[in-house]
Each structure stands twice: as structure tokens, then as C-alpha cells.
Here is the input.
Amino acid sequence: MKILKFGGAAIKDGRSIKNIVKILQIYKDSEVVIVISAMGKTTNALEKVISCYFNSKSKLQSALQEIKKYHNSILLELFDDENHKIFSSIDKLFKDLQMFLNLNKSPNYNYVYDQIICFGELVSTKIISGYLNHKGWKNSLLDARDMIKTNNNYRRAKVDWNKTKEKIISLIKKRENIVTQGYIASDSNNFTTTLGREGSDYSAAIFGYCLNAQSVCVWKDVPGILNSDPRYFKNSILLNSLSYEEAIELSYYGASVIHPKTLQPLKRKEIPLYVKSFFKPNEKGTKVGKNLSLNPDIPCYIIRKNQILISISSLDFSYILEDNIYQIFKLFNQNKIKVNLIQNSAITFIVCVEDINDNLNNLLIDLKAKYNVNIYKKVNIYSIRNYNESAIKKIEKNKKILVKQITQKTVQMVSQE
Ligand code: ASP
Ligand code: MG
Here is the structure.
């Protein structure tokens, strides 16, 4: 059994979906489970629907129409016959979504979010499973919510591994090809939950782990894992191979190519992870696996943008010690502030944080009551794994470096834009 995952960019239009049929020829000798996320930017578009639902109902229908129109145009590219039953099944899904919007009484934002956001994946898998069957690649569409079981922490649900394994094994029989959704799951009351944005990679790893898959392959719109993000760095180089540990480190420092939770389950069962180019399926891409060394042996650059540097010192110039650090971290935790870098000296404590939930002002009120606080907004954290002198120079050039930390394998620098 092999697991394949196609993300939004790899299924964003009819042409890309047609390309899946070509990719599947590579797998004609094994059964596969195909894990699919929402098409293109549908998840973002559904987030807009959710925000209209809560904040501006008058714009709700037009936000929904846009999503319907987008999927309809893809259907028309894929199916010549407008009487094909797929058109009415997709219509039915959108009616289900409308019904939820009409009937829902819950004010719980995160719960409502998950009940709506899942339609991106429900629609994409229905279309792709239908299209592949239509093209003669026989498959069964299974609902991931019947297989991946989680707690009810909506939008960031935690997987119940025992139940999930049992469900996956009992529902996926050998000798058949499966299409299912990434990202979505369900709680013990069978309400929809999700695994966190970009969570389909993680879903693929969950299926891989539970089925003892031979491999997991994530198909991307980049050639594989690169040594830097081509959106921000020139001359990015493809990594042919790396170990699980190195891949975990890279995602810890913020490399976004693989969802951070994906690697642990694969590492535990030593299942290799391939990251390949959707447009060049015969090229090797990147292999992540046991004892693989970083090849080529080059520095890897990661940038985290839009960070906030906070410098904290005591009002009476006393040392910042355990009790203060404890207090400070409690405030971060209470305000759901993500800490990405820490530097401590005798009287100053410096942290670089990310304010995902817009809580910075609350945090600053709490902090300023007890400490001297200086903040620098819009700073970047550059991390270089496997660094050398010239890599450091390249990053430092023309920048004001506010903090620099060097360990054996990693350099981190905070710079002001
Ligand atoms: N569709 C979801 C998202 O965009 C999950 C994923 O793409 O992995 O976050
Ligand atoms: Mg997506």
C-alpha cells in the first residue's frame, strides 16, 4: 500500500486534475490511498464564508457563489456530459452546506468553522474520485471522518491513535484503491474536526502509519524540498535526501514545505516520505528516510517573517531569573503568543514572538505592569541549518541584525526589515 497526497496547488484546475491520471500510471502495480486537500485556494475562500456568516451576513451568498462557480468550471473541464451524475452530487454537497448555515444555532466559532471548512475537501474528493472512475481508474471514495477520530478541540484536533487505527484498518481493505480527504476528521459525537491549516500532509502520514504503508508521497508544485523557499531566496537548490531528524528540525525552524506533525509518525515506522513535483512526475524529488544524510551537504535557509521582538527587563534592574521567566511565559501562554526565539542575559530577556491571534496588546498591558518592555515589530528570523561562514555573511549583508545565536548546527539571526 502506498499513500499519495495532492495539495491545493496540485489540483487547482482541470489540467492539473487530468495530470493525476498520468501520475497514477507510475503506481499501477500497487494499491494506493489518495489523500486530497481542497482545490486551489478554496479553504481561504471558505474562511471568508465563515467570516461573513458571523460578521456580515449580507455578503454570505456571494462568497458562497464564488466557490460554487469555481468548482463548476472545473467540473465542466473534466466532464463533457453535463448530465453526468457528478453535477448533481456536487450540487447536493453545496445544499448540505447551505442547510448547515440555515439551521446552525451554535455560537461556538471554532466548531462552526470546522463544520463549514470541511466542504472544501468533501467537494474536491467527490470530483476527483468521480473523475478517476470516469477515466477507468477504479476507486472507492471513503469519508476521512469515518476513519480519523480526534478529540473535540475544533480547528486543532488531537488524533486518537487507537480508535483511528482500528477504523482505518477495518474500512480500508487490501486490493482496492481509495480516495479520501486530508485535513478533516471527527470527534466522538461524529462532528467534523480539523487537524490545523495545511493539515493534509499530516492526514497522509496518519494513513501511512496505520496501514504500515510502503511509502508516502506528497505531490507539490515545487520539485521537492529545497534548501530555501524560492519565494524569498534566489537560487534555491533541491535536496535529494535528508533524515527524518533533519526534516523535523527544518520544519521546527519554520520551513513550510511539510506540515510539522507529518514526520513523527513516519519516523516511528520508518516509512519513507517522498516529496515530488507534480509537473515532473518522473524526476526523483526528495526522499526523507532513516539514516539518510543531507544531500547535497549545503546550508538550508529558513525565514520567518512578521515577527515581533520583545525585550523585557526588570523595573529595578535586578536579574531576570527563574521566577520572572516563569511569570513571563505564563503570560505568553495565557495570551496564546507563539514564542520562536529566546535569548537571556543578566537583566534583559529577549523573545521573538508571533501574534497569530491578535493578542499582542493584551500581552503588553500585562507585561508592562511588571517590566520595562521594548518592542520591535515586523522583524524577520533567519535560521540557517548546516551553516558556514559565507552563508552567514550572505544573510547579514545589508541588514541590521538585532540578535544572533549560534549553535553547532544552526545559526539564527533576527533582523529588522
Ligand atoms: N485545505 C486545507 C488548508 O488549506 C488543508 C491542506 O491544504 O492541507 O489548510
Ligand atoms: Mg489547502
Notes: The mean pLDDT is 95. Residues 7-8, 37-38, 43 surround magnesium ion (ligand 2) (CB under 6 Å). The chain has two domains: 2-221, 300-416. The longest strand covers residues 300-314.
